[in-house]
Amino acid sequence: MKNIFAMEPNERKHFLLHVLGFLFIFLMALVALFPFYWMLVTAVKPINEIFAFPPKLWPSQFIWSNFATAMERANFPVYFKNSFIVTASSTIITVCINLLAGYAFAKYDFFGKEFFFLLVLSTLMIPLQVTMIPVFIIASKIGIRNTLLGVIIPPCAEAFGLFMARQFISDIPNELLEAGRIDGATEFTLFSKIVVPNVKPLISTLVIFTVMWRWNDLQWPLIMLSNDEHFTVQLGLSNLNAAQYVNWNDMMAASLISVIPVIVVFLIFQRQFVEGMASSGIKG
After folding, report:
1. Which helix (H) or strand (E) segment is 14 a member of?
2. Residue 1: in which H helix or E strand, if any?
3. What pTM was estimated for this model as a whole?
């Protein structure tokens, strides 16, 4: 490594700026990761050390049995199963709807195309709380209240994913589709064999966003579900927090386990996620 004192003034300045930038990013990473560290430490420390002052950043002993206790205290195996069903089903349906609708808005010309697209985008300005009561009434009328289907279906069609899909698919050359039509390909073949393989970063982005949203969703399941057998993980955590006395060991242990699926999904799709975020939503 070249001695910093042997560098030219401009080269030394450039090197120092890089070092300061690295230190700043490192400190920001520590700040961002500290809540996860504190969650882990609180989950495994003795209960008498949770509110100790000054706070103990390292427990005197690790009580790993807190994780098993947290799972046994409530019906968390059922909650996790329900959350997996809701999240997986919602992600598949949402991604399919967004891709198909985005393809239609990007590559087809029909009457009122721009008007309907702006109409869909305008729903982003409507707070979710405004539509909850009407959607709840509709769900009750058709008999899907207090069912997992009632949690899965209503939020599946959302404007943000459609916007991303439309922007991304617009960049696929029309010549590819025209060549497929000349070769006799059907519209579904064009979509499945040409469009889908070219939008893998978009699919990864939609999967990550949808999984995070649906796995962490509390408001809609709280409104739709009243039967404990249908509760999701977030409802189970809220029940732990609703008691007069909160066992923070159990709360932090269950919360830590609940974030693992989202982290795993992000790690699987992270490279294409970054590419998708860089390639979509910034083109006119």
Report:
1. helix 9-44
2. none
3. 0.77
